[in-house]
Design brief:
mainly beta; four-stranded antiparallel β-sheet; 0% helix; globular
């Protein structure tokens, strides 16, 4: 079955950087789109960024554009989220998710990794 395992979260000061990783296994992901989402306490889960595995096409939320960069490593079946210029409002539980490129629903989710940005 599909498994998504996130890592790389932690505590960082405002202005700092972190790189999240999502190791994907269980099938070939060439026809999948991989996304990063986050959920802060008391708030709804929100979209952060996504990448189409085959084409490398990316998209970003307005709040992360210019600061975050999503990428993938085909050989390692891993998706990365490089987060720079972090702000306290980026504090959240970050989730990796996967869906078929043609689908509108992300139906595979990881357990999440916590990112905390101190001011």
């Amino acid at each position: 079955q599909v498994q998504l395992v996130e890592s790389g979260g932690g505590l960082v000061q405002a202005g700092g950087s972190l790189r999240l990783s999502c190791a994907a296994s269980g099938r070939t992901f060439s026809n999948y789109r991989m996304g990063w989402f986050r959920q802060a306490p008391g708030k709804e889960r929100e979209f952060v960024s996504a990448i189409t595995w085959s084409s490398g096409l990316t998209s970003y939320a307005d709040s992360t554009k210019g600061r975050f960069t999503i990428s993938r490593d085909n050989a390692r079946n891993t998706v990365y989220l490089q987060m720079d210029s972090l702000k306290p409002e980026d504090t959240a539980l970050y989730y990796c998710a996967a869906k078929l490129t043609a689908s509108s629903v992300y139906n595979y989710w990881g357990q999440g990794t916590q990112v905390t940005v101190s001011s």
